[in-house]
Amino acid sequence: MKILTLTPRQRIIYTPGLISLLLLPVFCMVFLHQHKAFQKLKAMDVVFFSPDWNKRLPKAYQFKFPPERSYVNVNLTGNTNSDQSLLEFARIQIRTILKTKNKSVGVQIHFGKKAQYWAFVKALDICYAEDVQSYAPYQDDIYVVYSGR
Q: TM segments (predicted)?
């Protein structure tokens, strides 16, 4: 009786198990790439102005909104082609205001009753892409001004 002796055993190799251990992670990665699971999503904080908030401040810190400037009005009506060209015009105006550092001019983007949501998102995207420091959505408008850095 050999109780304490070690006897060499033959290894058991389970081929389907080895194949699944090697191929399942590869198939999983291919599946996730096909369904765009690794796509990066971004978000941007948008803060809307509230007139009640300004009234709660002490008199020394209260301000007039929108700031007193001469504004270039951009009226978006809901027509896709004209809205795209008007938004490009607004982009050019914003770019010139930022380059010249003009504190007396601003851009007011007004959204009409039939304006579409993509136009609002595109206007915010323009402000983000042009690195505007001072823009404020208020009611049906977005006011873009240069505040100085």
A: 12-32
CA gap 70, 140 in Å, rounded: 18
134-144 pLDDT, tens digit per residue, is 888 888 999 99
Taken in order 126, 129, 130, 134, the sign of the CA dihedral is: positive
Helix (H) or strand (E) holding 72: strand 70-76
pLDDT of residue 4: 67
Name the H helices within the chain.
15-34, 51-55, 80-100, 117-129
Amino acid letter, 51 = P
Decide if 98 contacts 146 (C-beta within 8 A).
yes
Architecture in CATH of 51-145: 2-Layer Sandwich (3.30)
Per-residue pLDDT tens digits for 39-83: 888 887 777 777 788 788 888 888 788 878 899 999 999 999 999
Q: Which 3 state secondary structure label does DSSP give 21?
A: helix
What is the four-CA torsion angle of 143, 144, 147, 149, rounded to 10 degrees? 140
Q: How far apart are CA 77 and CA 55, in angstroms?
A: 33
